[in-house]
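Tokens help. Consider this.
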Amino acid sequence: MTANVEPGPTEPAVDVPAELVAALQASPAAGAAFQRLAPSHRREYATWVGSAAQAPTRARRAARAVEMLLAGGRR
């Protein structure tokens, strides 16, 4: 399952993996930070998490993404 991030006027939607959606919903501050990112950076996070072949790896990457967002960094 994936969720779409609302695109800007000229940006396509970003398919966000379910693991990242769940992690961002569990941390509203990280979710808000994710929404403030440029679409290209949101796509980077989504691709990084979603490219893992195994669910445990996607979950670990999603948790790490939340940590990085809360720290104010970009991947």
